[in-house]
User: Fold these one by one.
Assistant:
Number 1:
Amino acid sequence: MSRLDLRRNQRFDEISEGDCLGWRELVDIFGDRVVFSQAQYQIITISKVEVYHQLDSQPTRWNREELKKKREKFIIPGVKQMYADPPHFVKGKGQYLFDETGRQYLDMFAGIVTVSVGHCHPKVVQATVEQLNTLQHTSTIFMTQPMVDLGEKLADIAPGDMGKSFITNSGTEANEAAIRFARLATGRHEVIALEHSYHGESHLASTLTANHNWRPDTMPAAGVAYAANAYCYRCPFKKSPDSCGLECAQDVERVIQSQTSGKPAVMIAEPIQGVGGAITPPDDYFIEVKKILDQYGALFIADEVQTGVGRTGKHWFGISSYGVQPDIITMAKGLANGLPIGAVITTEAVAKALQKQTINTFGGNPVSAATALAVLETIEEEKLMENARVVGEYLMAGLKDLQKQFPQLVGDVRGKGLMVGMELADKNKVPLTKETMRIVEMAKDEGVIIGKGGMFGNVIRIKPPLNITKENVDTMLKVVKKCMESLVKVGVSA
């Protein structure tokens, strides 16, 4: 086959891997579907994968500057960019992202802890496309197999006797539903949340969020009280972990007695806080908290929107690493690798409380459900939970080494598995907020995407796809070290 015999309707698997095309020839054949720069793609070696991703992709209509202007014009200002000069991502593959020029970035943030098995994983894409070509939507008032199959799978991976699921479209919806279930099951109303927490963007969910950076509402919902966080690096009680007596856990009882009627319905908490800055409680914290909640007849919701689907290593859910059985689990984000989905998993006893008819138009739709099933199967088949544990330990060791090298910059390193944070602070624990953002920006310029968070915006958040390698970690550590060296040269506070 001549290299100029390609046509728009030709199947990509009919192209031999040895065929090469120049950039201008591609334009001649495929017209405006070719969007790659001449400099980057002067000569393209055709392979099945590359033809599929490069030649059959949708064209980019706007360059970066034009897109920034249109975003400012049409998108509300509260939907902010992380970067001063944001990349324009047009493609993802595995643990990598690509901008409109073809430049590759190592993704160590996974779309805010969402791309669990890697961008555009072939098995997941296939499951999504097959379901799209079969049945896209019906609603929960009709019976479809993908939602039921997903419910069965969630019952299989959930701890204890948690076998009932309610499928939603997001983590916000899941947390809203979980609070409603708990209130119905207990006949009570009051809710306890933790300081620094993040639980979503709705009115109730943002009230549960005890982090002012993410609370735009001036009129929070009633009936929510906040307990001190298990933030060992910045202990609210000025204690050290080896002698604190878990005063942070005891604070839950103080809040019940002083800020509620004494009969709260439920407490909601992230096993490891995400937006709060990878705040990781002591190993026996949740055991003590659950004892207190049981004593007062309150239920416990583990918000696993970020920590779920194997991210912390060893277990499907982060709370399991603390040896605690929650009454309700919520999850979202990594469950469908980027498609909108959320889920509430609970016991038969709690589920019975919801007897009146409820619907969710898009929750449990066949496409998201089929995709989620493929994600869970991929995690099992590729042993990504174990990879999260092994590579996560390697990552933690590397970050702690940076802490030793740059004590004037790194105050704390914490997390489990691939749910990791590095807090930047000086030797007096003063947050280095500006320096954190500078590292995030410089790392992006070096081709590595990392996140930031924490109450003071001074925590580098590292939550990559679960398929990353130790070599990927080495790449990121080298880049972050280079960024830190640059800061030290000009002065940490410059």
Note: Residues 384-405 form the longest helix (22 residues).
Number 2:
Amino acid sequence: MKPIWVVDDDQSIRFVLEKALQREGFSVRCFASPREVLEALEDDAPQVLVSDIRMPGGSGIDLLGAVKQRHPGLPVIIMTAYSDLDSAVSAFQGGAFEYLPKPFDVVKAVELIRRAVEESLREDVADAAQAQMPEMLGQAPAMQDVFRAIGRLSQSNVTVMITGESGTGKELVARALHKHSPRAQGPFVAINTAAIPKDLLESELFGHERGAFTGAQTTRRGRFEQADGGTLFLDEIGDMPFDLQTRLLRVLSDGQFYRVGGHQPLKANVRVIAATHQNLEERVRQGHFREDLYHRLNVIRLRLPPLRERREDIPMLTRFFLGKSAKELGVEAKRITDSALARLATFDFPGNVRQLENLCHWLTVMAPAQVVEPKDLPPELLGAPAAPLAAPAEPPGAADASATTATPPPPLGTEAAPAAPAAPPDWLADLARDARRRLESGETEVWDTLTRQFESGLIHTALELTRGRRIEAAQRLGIGRNTITRKIQELGLED
């Protein structure tokens, strides 16, 4: 395995990472500037590159761009003491594997680097040049029944009613029915009857003549005319207004209709496929849906199974949607581990296939690595309990405090001091009470105020213990000398 390269102008950071990675069995090569890295890249390449973002010899973002041009698949981790939005966005836009704010927990940093190494060593398992994607996916018995039904209907023009929960893919089935029917050469026109206001729906379906109503300045062809010779898909048919149900019934019965404001009958050479997620029988009993229209539409019924009834299809669908999302975003498709797929298969997906597709889009954008692991999945998806709103927030400056677990380089020839015992939790309760008091009183900038107090207290205590020696204080706090100098200036601790 190739070595891990670390580039940072702060010698203490290089020392900490080098020793921590060597303890884990990694080979490490350190650099003090981006120029040295670029020179080394002429003859060699690392397994993973860990780079600071701001250095006297150049920018880590520029280095990231140069490295990605030469080695597109090389994982690059960007470190920075300037944890601002622009830095984070620039890092990820440049193709960074992850963004690591300073000061950091060394254990977590090593774990992140190990993950990047695993990614770089993982062989590509996805075929980049896939053949044309199938129009529908499914190996579960319930989906095989749907495929068989589509096959049996392939030579028919009969009206079909598609039922199923929201997000199960009813329009996909309607398109498949059209594609494999004698009307395949004709148009496929879809309309969601629930998405169009009642006053406009009639005109949308049947068209209107010029001057039929205010704003009708030209004659307009409706969806029935647009679908002539083909298929009209009426989604969410259960939400169609009652008076329009009568007009639709007439079209299905007589095969003709009138535009709004028109007097000339028009022929409707259209196959109608309707879909709903509602219980139409119940709506008929309640008087919200015409019984005669229901029987006219319900000639052949196709029920689409929810995703929880076809869990064996989740791995296939997940990989498909990850590839689709990557293609849409113009990025490399992410892969997903078997353990992550197993976790997904336990979820009921109330939003069905649409929810799974949205999840894959989220993972493509938000997952930190190219390989999705269980810990990358959103907690709400897996039913993880959400943090209560009333719980005390993480103390201001906790990111800085976490660095106290890092092991800074000890003075040469000395042993590192043992870690101090964990602070009692009383201060957290005091912090929570103080924060609550400030928030209830309507005070603004509570975060900034408490953060300054927290950081000032830490630095003042460290300087007091080290008798004002900044480098030693920074080492004990687990931060770099540049960081402590900058914080002293920002917090007004110069005196």
Note: The first helix runs from residue 11 to 23.
Number 3:
Amino acid sequence: MLDSILLALSPYLLLVTTAGVCLGIIWGALPGLSTTMAMGLLIGLSAGMGQNSAICFMLGVYTGSVFGGAISAVLINIPGTPDAVPTMIEGHQLAQRGEGGQALGMAIASSFIGGWVGIILLVAFIPLLLTFALNFRSWEMFLLALTGILVAGTMSTGEMPLKGWISGWLGMLVAFVGLDAIHATPRFTFGTFALFDGISYVPVLIGLFGLAEILRTLPSPSAPTIPSGVDRVVPPLRMIMKYFKSAVRSGVLGTVIGAIPGAGANVASFLSYDIGRRRASPEERAKWGKGSYEAIVCAETANNANIGGSMLPTLALGIPGNAAAAALLAALTLKNVVVGPTIETDHPGLIYFIYAALVVANMIMYVAALMLIRPCVRLFSLPRGILMPLILPVCIIGAYSVKLSIFDVWIMFAAGIFGWLMSRFKFPVAPMVLGVILAPLADESLRRSLFIFEDKSWSYVASQWIGTVLIIFIALVIIDGIRRLFSKPSDPSKAAV
């Protein structure tokens, strides 16, 4: 572990991590540019890096972008990322009273604490999860991949889970294009030689989160009015200690939610915000919705702890905890790193390096956030008509750089148009991303398990207790989804979350 920390603290990797964190903060601060979009686009920059550099860079982007959304949320009442909405509700009220700097300072401190809670729980529980995951064979891995897609679809769409499931199946269909991994039989290639190698998930990610976002936001009005400046940013220590208990509770909650495939930082942020309101003192509860520092602490701690939580299933099972973790998994795959139950034997010392990279990224995030608040404010003055077209070359370069293939650029454009159409018809994109990532695992695992079960009885299949538990869980998810499909939500605002 010590060697991994020293390696992560080497000058070059420190520089790479700092670059990733700063890009993430700036990206997250710009309205409409989500964490997942940042991860999907900037993955192209990591393609030319070494393994350790790519890990440090992508974890830096992940850590920085999750916090970055709080800057625009507090100062201009526009959440840079979806999980910053609770911070926007409370923080902008404080900014209007001249306390915007201190609100951002509490958001930074909370994000720092949340990052540490997520890392500590990740280090504490991943050995247990890895030991448990070694019992997962082909049948269990297929069911686990299926569970991730179903849960992602259900969590992304509220009362309309069918749209989320359809999105996940479409992602799986995209992943099935090309030669199958067992018999090398062409599937959905339509006689096109360029499709024999399959559709790379990187241009699909860039198109769905980059180009689609450009198409969605370009017609929008220009930038809002920005404040002239901010007051003191670093909050007093007594204020941090006052809400420390709430921060720890929200951090644990955010980590647990992050470990659930499909439940992203926005779910963690909203849920922690609601629970924090219920557990707050009467005096503090009266401030909720009118400018509460405790509410900011709850939301920001939860969404940053979500990072460590999302790494649990990603590293231990190879199942991304959310769409951003899926992009990180894609970056690891580009470096021929296969995560899962055997990560410690296949890549000795790698998991400790990831721990160290997360620690370093979290520490750099705290310093960089304090330094970048004021420069970020200036970026808000850029009209969307100028900002969004500047992102297009980044999308093209990112798609082309993976395989140096112009075909991938066309795939990116097609995915972008398709992602825009999905948003027009209210279909979530995150389940499709998980479908693209998890489909190869589900496909190979199912076919291997069918070979194994060919001469076995149904009682033998049922005796695989982990698989049986997963089947029961899948059935419960489907039943719950059907129930929500035919029931109207009592609170429209909750359904939207």
Note: The chain is about 75% helix and 0% strand.
